[in-house]
Amino acid sequence: MWGRRGMNDLLFELPLPALFDFDVCLEYLNRSPLECLYRTDQQGVTRYFILDNMPVLIRLTVPEESKLQVTLLHGTAPGPEAQERLARYIMEWFDLGRDLAPFYRVAEADPLLQPLAQQHRGLRIVGIPDLFEALCWAILGQQVNLAFAYRLKHQLTAAYGKSLEWGGQTYYEFPAPEVFAEVELEELFALQLTRSKARTVLEVAALIASGGLSREELLAKPSPEAAEQRLLEIRGVGPWTSQYVRMRCLDDTTAFPVGDVGLQNAVKFLTGMDRKPTPAELVQLAQPWRGWEAYATFYLWRALY
DNA sequence: TTCCAGGCTTAAC
DNA sequence: GTTAAGCATGGA
User: Fold this and answer.
1) Using the CA of A145, which nucleotide's C1' is the nearest one?
2) Which of A1, A61, A200, A297 is exposed most, by the fewest CB atoms within 10 A?
């Protein structure tokens, strides 16, 4: 067929920064067997994308140090513009544009972070570059254990996302917000979402689909706090959700979800406290981390999951 | 059954 | 502005 390429085409390579370790990031990606939006193995991660309305299966590997290879496993090779978008997505996914040296200077001087920085050296905040996906993941994760949050995401994705069978596996794209235009609350209840989660997911979907909310708009705000204020206007989006989105979608290294029970448990565990720290105590503890609270949180999570 | 989980809203002070 | 109670759902 004209224009068809062979299997396993190398699309492009991305240069990798210092203080990046792909294997450590893969460990993070591999943290739950219930993850439905990508598949990891020893060598890399495979994910389904829709580029130029064409489904493609993309694989990321780092065969040699300092170079990330982006390979097309299935589908038609996207055009230059779509490849540029894919490259940007991957940069954001693994926070590749960040100079992590300042964080490591902070971490290596900190009794709580030092062992984590050593054990997970080269870990980046693995982002959720798509705003709708990031908001949904946070909403689904409100006040439920992680296993159940993954189950909800899988339910939502399988019900409304596009999928591709390849190599005996099913790969999914997270559903686009437009898909939810005609969806009734009751449909989401059937997927085990609570009334609040269902309402908020539909509200966010409608906002984003109509252009009333976008990542670009949030990034254009004068400060991360201003972006957070915008998110807090949405009913069902509270402090934890907005800080979580700042951290994983808006590239904000200062986001600090002090209400996060996982963060609280990690600090309790690592410090030997007999109770969970209060948000105020976490703020106090984070004084030396100023500017890198989100990275500190991400590394602290690794102590638990 | 009870308690907890990568919370949010509302109502009362 | 801060705090308490109510809300839901599955897992251990």
Assistant:
1) B5
2) A1
